User: Which sequence fits this backbone?
C-alpha cells in the first residue's frame, strides 16, 4: 500500500483560508482525479471521484474502500481509501510563501491518483476581513469577488495541485 498526499497551493489576494465547504473532513466533499494503473501504467480518460461519506465493499475481502476500480486495459483491480484528519486548510500565508499544503491523504493499492481537479462549487473562502464566500466553484482555476466589509477585491488564481508519495 502506498499513501499519496494531495498537496495544493494558489496565488491569493486578501484571502485568509480556502477550505472544503463542510470543513476538513466534510463527508460530501468530492475529490476528482484520474487513476493510473499500478500494473500497466494506463491512465483513465475519465475522472473518478471519492468522498469520505461514501464507501464500497472490496470484492473478495471484508474491507471497504472509497474507490474500487478495475483497469480497463489490463483488468487489474485496485482500491483507494481516504484518510480522515490528514489535511489542513490552505491559508493566505501558505500561498504567500508559495507553500503546498496537504488537503487529504489516500491509501492506494494497485492504482494511484493523478491529475487532481478542483471541480464543483464546494469550496469555502474566508477573506482577511472575515467575510465568508460559500459554494465557490474553483474548477476554472481561479475566482474573484468583492469584499463589501472592507471594500477590497479578493481573489484566487493559479491554483496548483500535485500528489506526493509518502514514504513509509
Ligand atoms: Zn492496468
Assistant:
Amino acid at each position: 500500500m502506498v499513501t499519496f498526499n494531495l498537496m495544493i497551493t494558489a496565488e491569493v489576494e486578501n484571502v485568509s483560508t480556502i477550505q472544503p465547504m463542510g470543513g476538513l473532513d466534510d463527508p460530501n466533499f468530492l475529490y476528482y482525479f484520474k487513476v493510473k494503473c499500478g500494473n500497466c501504467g494506463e491512465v483513465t480518460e475519465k475522472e473518478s471521484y471519492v468522498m469520505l461519506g461514501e464507501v464500497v465493499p472490496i470484492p473478495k475481502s471484508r474491507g471497504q474502500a472509497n474507490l474500487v476500480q478495475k483497469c480497463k486495459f489490463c483488468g487489474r483491480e485496485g482500491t483507494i481509501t481516504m484518510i480522515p484528519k490528514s489535511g489542513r486548510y490552505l491559508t493566505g500565508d501558505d500561498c504567500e510563501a508559495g507553500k503546498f499544503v496537504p488537503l487529504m491523504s489516500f491509501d492506494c493499492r494497485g492504482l494511484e491518483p493523478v491529475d487532481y481537479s478542483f471541480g464543483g462549487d464546494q469550496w469555502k473562502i474566508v477573506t482577511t476581513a472575515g467575510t465568508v464566500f460559500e459554494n465557490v466553484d474553483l474548477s476554472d482555476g481561479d475566482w474573484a469577488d468583492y469584499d463589501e466589509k472592507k471594500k477590497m477585491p479578493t481573489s484566487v488564481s493559479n491554483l496548483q495541485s500535485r500528489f506526493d508519495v509518502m514514504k513509509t
Q: What stands out?
A: The helical segments are 92-96.
